[in-house]
Amino acid sequence: MQTNYCKYCDKVHELNVLEHTEVCDIKEEKIEYIKKEYLCKKTNKIFTTPDLDDINQLEAKDIYRRKHNLLTSKDIKQIREKYSLSQSDLALILGWGEVTITRYETKEIQNEKYDNVLRKINDNPYILYDYFEINKDCFDQKKQIKISKKIISVSPSEEHANKLIEQS
Questions:
Q1: Alpha helix ranges (H) inside the chain
Q2: Rounded to 5°, angle at Cα 114 from 142 and 57
Q3: 82 neighbors 122 (Cβ within 8 angstroms)
Q4: At 40, which helix (H) or strand (E)?
Q5: SS3 for 153?
Q6: What pLDDT digit, counting tens, does each position of 81-91 carry?
Q7: pLDDT by residue (tens digit) across 78-137?
Q8: Which residues pair with 16 in a beta bridge?
């Protein structure tokens, strides 16, 4: 059960969450996923909300991603959080559009090229640091120092961190 606004009762109350298998088309491919909907116990009506629709769409897209060996939206978020970076900061470091990471975490499916870059920076902080060195002029000096420290903090050892520091 979840408390939410019911458009049929015009009230906020507890709603049952129903789940059933649904099929949708993603990139001309049929994807089967578990769709969530609300059931109003008072009116016995089933409905979704825009937020629930977003959750359902993202679930279907993540199934597509797994099927095609792409990082899921959660994987991308975890990479970004590993470096304690905002969505726009990571996108700018990589030289991408400022909202690219936001789109990949919320609604769009990245292509293999972008997926490979994300995998590489996840596996090796040096690669992210190299991107940062190329694009650091997108940030003021205070933010450059902050981001540099964040990336260095992820280095697997003190020796690796020192190497990054020496390079900057």
A1: 50-67, 73-82, 87-93, 100-106, 112-123, 125-135, 141-153, 158-167
A2: 105
A3: yes
A4: none
A5: helix
A6: 999 999 999 99
A7: 999 999 999 999 999 999 999 999 999 999 999 999 999 999 999 989 899 999 999 999
A8: 39
